[in-house]
Amino acid sequence: MTEILVWPHDVLIPAENYPNIVPFTRTGGRALGGAKPSVRTDLGFWTIDYVGILLHSPAQLRVWEAIKDILSGSSGRIAVPIWVQQSAPWAGGPRVGYEPSPTVPHDDDTPFDDGTEYEQGAISIETVGETLIGATVITLRAIAAGDDLSGVFFSYEHALYRTGRVVSVDGNDWTMRISPSIRQTIPAGATLEFDIPTCLVRLVDDDGMNNGQNINRYQPVNVSFEEDTQYWNLLAIGAET
Length: 241
Prior knowledge:
Layout: E1 16-22, E2 25-27, E3 38-40, E4 45-54, H1 58-71, E5 78-81, E6 103-104, E7 118-119, E8 124-127, E9 137-144, E10 153-156, E11 159-170, E12 173-179, E13 198-203, E14 220-227, H2 229-236
Antiparallel strand pairs: 1-4, 2-3, 4-14, 5-13, 6-7, 8-9, 9-12, 10-11, 11-12, 13-14
């Protein structure tokens, strides 16, 4: 996939974040009894709201302004994280608040040349078999995870998903319903992101990152995004993204 700007999850952290799916529905006229039928025609798209990001340091303000400049309103795209520690399938039970991912060295116990190590997610789950674009069912293999994979969030290459009803469980393999439908084919054995999933989005409004600079240096800001479904549509038909 093309290079995607990623929101700095360790610099600009909201006090609250709201990832929600907006379903595509088709409604008809009211029935004789007064009921209004609503038919679900697709599995929708994501909206993500960040509330209470504190810009209390010059570095945070500079990062905020740089992202605003790169996006240039709602025409730009960015992969934003969602913080779902409370519902994530941690092997050791739920966590509250942001925690950095653990780091590990190379196989020979050496770090990179600059002394840093690989980031490694605490949750390890991969796909079983290939999951085709448009699919609404996926099979997950829990390698290091909790004992329930229903109602949890994960991403693959910045496409965000939420698991739903469990179809079947066979040992460590969980076959489950998923929303929204698969954005791009996920290969067999793919490692999925459960620690801090991401979603490819655009700003809802051109002025969605407007802010000021307060003399007390503490400025809470909010920002709203919606999933960049156009990107996935272009990718599916092999067009320029």
